[in-house]
Amino acid sequence: MVQQITRGIKVSVETNFEGTFYKNYKMHFAFGYKVTIENQGKESVQLTSRHWEIFDSLNNKEIIEGEGVIGKKPVLKPGEKHSYNSGCLLASPYGSMNGYYNMVSFNSSKSFRVSIPAFKLSAPFALN
């Protein structure tokens, strides 16, 4: 698990390898991840959008941006957590992801970014 705190918002990520399969005549490696966002600050915040950078060992880079996470824009009061599961496909058995969430503070109405720590994606059979 990797964790990072930005402005009182703690982001934790756990990963797992889901398996391999063929799509469009190419082998893909499927990875799942669970993200937990915890408000350790003193003000209520809302997650409004996300930005992900997905890399694989073949030097492929994919940028994913969008509103909320898994169709939601969670509001986190101090002490609250929000968890969700998602996944990605890589063309190789190794890769990594990182990014940020755009959040807004209810106290100041100002937007700010919360870093998503870089985490590795690796198929267990590919490790020495």
TrEMBL record:
Residues 3-128 form the ApaG domain. InterPro entries: ApaG-like (IPR050718), ApaG_domain (IPR007474), ApaG_sf (IPR036767). It comes from the Bacteria. Signal peptide: none annotated. Coiled coil: none annotated. Pfam families: DUF525. This is Co2+/Mg2+ efflux protein ApaG. It comes from Pseudofulvibacter geojedonensis. The gene is apaG.
